[in-house]
Amino acid sequence: MTKCASVSIIGRPSSGKSTFLNSICERKVSITSPTPQTTRNAIKGIYTDTRGQLIFVDTPGIHLSEANLNKKLQEVSVTAMDDCDEVLYMIDPKREPGPEERLIAGMLSKITCPKVICINKNDIASEDEIQRTRDFLEENFPGCEPLEASSLEDDGLDEVLIALFAQAPEGPLMYGEDDFTDQDLEFRVSEIIREKAMDGMKDELPHSLYVEVADLQYSEEKKEVWVRAFINVEHESQKGIIVGRGGENIRRIRIASFKDLKKIFPGCKLQVDLRVKTSPQWRQNDMLLKKLIK
User: Fold this and answer.
1) Are residue 92 and residue 194 in the same domain, yes or no?
2) In the listed set 167, 195, 214, which residue is the last one of a domain according to the structure?
């Protein structure tokens, strides 16, 4: 009998949730960056094989903060946990468990659905770091048997899938066998551009920008795609950083975006027009946050 389950991927920022999803789906479904809290939405990645289908939901990293944006991100993660059939808890052994990890453990203790716990990044973690993480998990989840994996190296992921399928309910597939995400084109385009705009940016700037696709024209008959998008920042001084000296940085962002966008529109003539504008205090704008973060 075919199995089908929705699986929320939960963890702190930068625990490797998005990298795991991309490795499982064997393509870019969720953008990645060294910057914590890159993921802002509940992003679905769909994995299907002969056993059935797992609909993974990549969620924003759970982070303690009273800022409007961070509170909205945490709401997304909590909602995803409430609506799922299973939870995959990913923990980064390179970071010592702290208040955020204890918050997650407390949240998971109240959830009755099946859970799979994965210690990620075992390719770079020391034995002491992994043991420290195991001690934390035993303290908070007595008798648990955490798996170990490396999302980056695609190591141990089959064991994670086996554990998830073992606890998945029986049921028909929710998506087609060839589907890998349910994101619309406009969202995928905006996320790719945001990823490239974040690359190499330091301090607060990556969190201070969002991308708005103003126009997306796609002619399947003519094999032509035209994208016009705005990179929005909070302060006028940040526009110069995004543009760069002589437009050097915005060109870099456009070229890097172009390469990934070509994978979405293979065989098409692609034009990408990027602009930068200021959207003051957008992270405090509740109406805009509701539109951007779902």
Assistant:
1) no
2) 167
